Amino acid sequence: MLEHHFAPKVTEADKDRLVKLINDKPWIVPSTMLLEIIPVSIVAYGFFRNCRLRTKLKIEREKTMQAYMKRTKSGEMSMEEQHFLKRL
Q1: pLDDT at 54 over 80
Q2: What SS3 string covers the chain?
Q3: Does any domain span residue 34?
Q4: Residue 85 and residue 79: Cα distance in Å, rounded?
Q5: Domain that holds residue 79
Q6: According to the lineage, what is the superkingdom (predicted)?
Q7: Are 85 and 68 in contact (CB under 8 A)?
Q8: pTM, full prediction
Q9: Taking all residues of the chain, what is their mean pLDDT, rounded to a whole number?
Q10: Structural domain count, the chain
């Protein structure tokens, strides 16, 4: 196992105290796991929501570009118009 030079050494007394604590209060393990799962679930929710919103934004950009192209009756655009469409 990797050891860090700032981390204190785990002794047998520490291990015994941990085992005794878990035996005396077994509810600590599920509650600790729950506290660790909450931030992970928030991060996962945010990530997938961001992906969904990014996809919607791409669709809206494409709709805007298509509407702009329809408004310009000729297929030719000036450099300013092309620059505008690229920045959408």
Answers
A1: yes
A2: CCCCCCCCCCCHHHHHHHHHHHHHCCCHHHHHHHHHHHHHHHHHHHHHHHHHHHHHHHHHHHHHHHHHHHHCCCCCCCHHHHHHHHHC
A3: yes
A4: 10
A5: 12-87
A6: Bacteria
A7: yes
A8: 0.54
A9: 86
A10: 1
Return d(Cα 77, Cα 73) in angstroms, integer. Answer: 10
20-49 tens-digit pLDDT: 999 999 999 999 999 999 999 999 999 999
Nearest-angstrom CA–CA distance, 18 and 24: 10
Residue 75's pLDDT is 65
Rounded Cα–Cα distance for residues 59 and 61 (Å)? 5
7, part of any domain: no
Q: Is residue 2 part of a domain?
A: no
Residue 2 pLDDT grade (very low, low, confident, very high; cuts 50, 70, 90): low
